[in-house]
Amino acid sequence: TDRFDPAASDSRWQERWEEQRCFRADSASAKPKAYVLEMFPYPSGRIHMGHVRNYTMGDVLARFRRAQGHEVLHPMGWDAFGMPAENAAMENKVHPGSWTRSNIATMRGQLKRLGFALDWSRELATCEPDYYGHEQALFLDLFAAGLVFRRESEVNWDPVDMTVLANEQVIDGRGWRSGALVERRKLNQWFLRITDFAEELLEGLDTLDHWPDKVRLMQENWIGKSRGLQFRFQRPEGGEVEVFTTRPDTIFGASFVAISPGHPIAEALAAERPDVADFIALAKQGGTTAAEIETAEKLGFDTGLTVTHPLDPDWQLPVWIANFVLMDYGTGALFGVPGHDVRDFEFATKYDLPIKRVVAASADDAEAPLTEAETISGVAVNSRFLDGLTTDEAKAEVIRRAEADGWGKGTTQYRLRDWGVSRQRYWGTPIPIIHCDDCGAVPVPKDQLPVVLPEDVTFDIPGNPLDRHPTWSKVDCPTCGKPARRETDTLDTFVDSSWYFIRFASQPEDKPFDAAEAQAWLPVGQYIGGVEHAILHLLYARFWTRALERIGRLSLKEPFKGLFTQGMVTHETYKAGDGSWLSPGEVTRSGDDWIHIESGQPVTSGRVEKMSKSKKNVVDPDAIIDRYGADAVRWFMLSDSPPERDLEWSIGGIEGAARFVQRVWRLATSPVEPSGEDKAVTRKLHRTIAAVGAAIEGLQFNKAIAAVYELVSTLEKAAPSAARSEAIRTLVILVAPMAPHLAEEAWAALGGDGMVVDQPWPAHDPALLVDDEVTIAVQVNGKLRHTLTAPRGMDREALQAMALSADKISALMEGAEPRKVIVVPDRLVNIVL
Ligand code: ANZ
Ligand code: ZN
pLDDT value at position 168? Predict the structure, then answer.
């Protein structure tokens, strides 16, 4: 036929690949292994263009590796627990399980339509007991090794809905449903001891040389290693206040000491003084995220207590309770240096406390006025014996004195905190612990795993449905047999995604994974996903891998050898006169303007933004596949922008891709020419093979596409020859990773053996990569006068003769003899007159 028809072809080849089990990964294969992984999706409803772009990139690499002779693992699954399913349950009265599973079915169908080379036999969903049961077993292993512990910690509490809120449910300090001011409340929660790994996680970053620098830097900052000093201020009436600082050099700039509202001294005062108790209640309002605490208005209460400066017995500092001091960081107390800390400056300005300069760019600036906090390094000023020392020297000197005189100790501090994994939600992995009054927190015996989530729960009132289930939590203590209570908190969904790549690599029924099999695949060779996961997911997965290594379950330090973070898919937005967003389907072009089809009113065609439901600029992949076929969509996703940049969706772009698919088809179905050389075509082919391979290897998919475009143009223009026919066959193999359905159909039309998917990646002849013609500049007295085309490697005499006999040059010379001729082979001839 003269047109490639995706509607008929796509599914035919998808079925063939499936029948032939082309993408099944064989762990026992002797071939070199390649593990290509894209971050698995949350089953929110439908696949969006961002997914399509992400998975297309991974797919090109997976197919390329397969053609190179690797045994490829390219799996897909579902990050299936989480809040949206519970919200849907509350809003639409559907069970989170059926909502999630039906979304998975829809999205799986959508992915299959795109023809991804995925090993569907390894599909997993984290919400199924055959996944989370193994997670519970791993949790218990970590518990046994002391890497899981329980501790009181602050959560966001909605006093109206009487429920704990996740950070993302706190909006501007208020509960997202009730609108009530959120309070901080203490609850017993489970933690993973990630801080034990802070130093290794930091050092490990140095080994990740196939990760983007920006991601490594973000992780480094998140871990936040710093040297500091922990020391005690004495209270004149006895007792002490211990503080932590990363700027001991500013100790002479202290103007107050501030303690957290949760600090024992604050709590002791509150027990006796109602004004203190009132202040603490007020200070505890607002969310628990660092960002919220940073931006909230600074509130303070002067306790009337004082402490003595450790380097000056005559210097008393007031003790305040302040809302910006966190209880679970450092010691829950600090000394304020308003001149050089932003929060302290704001606090001191509000409460009229002294602001003094103790750091300056140079000693000459000691008296320069401070109009804002100067958070600088420089030299110490107004600081007695520290004056003139650099910031680093002054820090070291204060630490030295503190240690020598016994009032403090140098510390290494990490900003990283232990990972709180308790969630007071239903739709998550049940924490496999039973609470007994006599025995405490008892692990569920492994032969009783999985602890299965009950299906019969209600969502009509706020709170955790597991708490109010009539029977689920009532169990006997596994140790003493007395009535006890099941833990009703579930695990943070980041736990589920911290080890799924291991389960993909090895999935025995009776244990989480087989170490030898998993290690045959791991680490993931190339991981591809959104930069929004640059910190948490990637850090947790790195931690989980190291934790498994520490307890002897896996011998692996880093789970992801290569990381690539792709850009977003963006699209124009449209806004009606009343400011509401309109979808592309609701508007049409009229001349240079856009109008709302229904009302005929003008519409502003606005900025290009990330596709999102709220802005109604989403394009549904299904509709596009229906219209243009899978390959055109895949092609467009790869073609327009470098993969790390944003890609703007456009109809022009997808249509261009669809036209290109047909151009390749027409070439493939042009008559085969049995004989005839064409050196230029052969050279172009070999260059394209090299260019496409190098581009895919470097994840520069747009460059691979550009190289294919060039080859196609050359072949369209070339006269028939055997060389051209051969180039067309090879072209089909080269486009296969990007446009696999077209490639199979074209391969069959060309009478190729078997399927394209089984063809090895073509080799290029390096000798054909070099141009065998070069351009020679001809200068007269140093001025460029002419250019010549000559065979590469032509000798000096021949070049000189060729230059001198060129019409243009002999006209210029008017019969004169050159004084001298300088020849640089393959480059230039300079004639000096
Ligand atoms: C004196 C000082 C002077 C400080 C100065 C900073 C600048 P990072 O670097 O993020 O680790 N701090 C100590 N404990 C705190 C707590 N529980 N809640 C809130 N802030 C606390 O932060 C360390 C600095 O944060 C410490 O150093 C302390 O203020 C404050 F020019 O001490 B600094
Ligand atoms: Zn017991």
Answer: 67
Q: Is 246 in the pocket of ligand 1 (CB under 6 A)?
A: yes
* CA pair distance 689, 656, nearest whole angstrom: 23
Smallest-distance ligand from the CA of 475: 2
Quote the ligand 1 centre to 325 CA distance (angstroms): 9
- pLDDT tens, 353-362? 999 999 999 9
Summarize pLDDT for 88-147 with one digit per residue, the tens.
888 888 999 999 999 999 999 999 999 999 999 999 999 999 999 999 999 999 999 999
Task: State whether the beta carbon of 370 lies less than 6 angstroms from ligand 1.
Answer: no
Question: If we measure between CA atoms, which residue out of 770, 777, 775, 773 comes closest to residue 830?
Answer: 777
Does residue 337 line the site of ligand 1, with CB under 6 A? yes
Determine if residue 553 is left, alpha or beta; phi over 0 gives left, psi from -120 to 50 gives alpha, anything else beta: alpha
Closest-approaching ligand to the CA atom of 438 = 2
Residue located via tokens 């049961």: 133
Sequence-distant (≥ 6) Cβ neighbours of residue 705 within 8 angstroms: 635, 638, 639, 738
As a three-state string, the secondary structure of 546-572 is HHHHHCCCCCCCCCEEEEEEECCEEEE
Share of the chain above pLDDT 90, in %: 81
DSSP-derived secondary structure letter, 167 = G
Residue 773: CA atoms inside 13 Å, Cβ hemisphere, count?
8
Q: Return d(Cα 614, Cα 821) in angstroms, integer.
A: 72
Distance CA 272, CA 517 (A): 63
